[in-house]
Write a structure and sequence with these properties.
With about 270 residues, the chain is mainly alpha-helical. It folds into 2 domains: about 1-40; about 45-265, no CATH class. It is about 85% helix and about 0% strand. The chain contains 10 helices and no strands. It has helices spanning about 10-25, 30-40, 45-50, 55-95, 100-110, 115-130, 135-155, 160-195, 200-255, 260-265. Helix 1 (about 10-25) packs across helix 2, helix 4 (about 55-95) packs parallel to helix 9 and helix 6 (about 115-130) packs parallel to helix 9. The radius of gyration is 36 Å and the shape is rod-shaped. The protein starts with 7 loop residues before the first helix and ends with a helix.
Length: about 270
């Protein structure tokens, strides 16, 4: 085999470079497509978009993810709490509906910390402070006490649901802020690169849409869970109202019988 002359390789490389330049001039779309393909990120998964996003957009995404976690945590905690307290309230209501007296109901619920037990104990305390004398003033004072206990127990059971309302109302706007920031970065990239090809525009738009999606993911469950918990809490408050009514009925029944001696029985 004959060896190439010293200048042969140089001439071949120069010819290849000229041919590539001519191809770029004749078919510019092919060259730009190859450049765009080289500049485009190979992985546009949510995690890769998060990692490559601007620090502000990353902060928005992290905040929305934390808000979503708080939403589901509140849902689980409040669901367990409401079910447990509702079951206990129904059980004590069953005892109040039997042929009993307030002194016996107070004795059975003396160690209880639930809402119905607090209602019974509050009525018994007022009866004891009134000396066990039944009159219209006693019923008014007991009703006032029961109203305050109901309000306090209602505030206690609703604690934490306000966070869901806040998340549901603000998460879409936080996601919108991330969207605006991502689109702004896209326009800045277009201005700096002096081109409108897809490689410059696509990453920023993808980040913006991801922020919007996370805002909706955080907001929609928060609104649905808030409405569900509001309905269940309303049912629980109705049980407390029934318990207060049953206690007032017990007091009124004993007063009509002339056997209201709760002050001595409660000591």
């Amino acid at each position: 085999m004959q060896q190439d002359r010293p200048g042969t390789k140089v001439r071949r490389r120069a010819a290849a470079a000229v041919a590539a330049a001519i191809g770029a001039l004749v078919l510019p779309g092919t060259a730009f497509a190859a450049t765009d393909a080289a500049l485009l990120p190979r992985n546009l998964s949510p995690w890769n978009m998060f990692v490559s996003a601007d620090i502000v957009v990353q902060g928005v995404m992290v905040g929305l993810a934390i808000a979503s976690l708080v939403t589901w945590t509140v849902w689980l905690a409040k669901t367990i709490e409401i079910r447990r307290k509702t079951s206990l309230a129904k059980r004590r209501l069953g005892l109040l509906e039997t042929d009993t007296v307030l002194a016996r109901a107070e004795q059975d619920s003396r160690d209880g910390k639930d809402a119905v037990a607090q209602i019974i104990q509050s009525a018994a305390r007022e009866a004891a402070l009134s000396g066990g004398h039944f009159d219209d003033g006693l019923k008014e004072r007991v009703a006032l006490r029961l109203e305050r206990v109901e309000a306090a127990m209602s505030r206690q059971i609703a604690r934490g649901t306000g966070v869901l309302a806040t998340i549901g109302a603000t998460a879409p706007f936080v996601g919108l802020f991330g969207t605006v920031w991502g689109i702004m970065n896209s326009f800045i990239g277009i201005s700096e690169a002096k081109t409108t090809n897809l490689a410059v525009v696509a990453p920023g738009i993808a980040e913006a849409l991801l922020a919007t999606a996370l805002g909706l993911v955080a907001a929609i469950p928060a609104v649905v869970i808030y409405n569900h918990l509001t309905r269940t809490i309303t049912g629980y408050r109705a049980l407390l109202g029934d318990a207060s009514a049953m206690v007032l009925l017990l007091i009124s029944r004993e007063g009509d019988r002339g056997s209201f001696r709760l002050s001595r029985a409660a000591e």
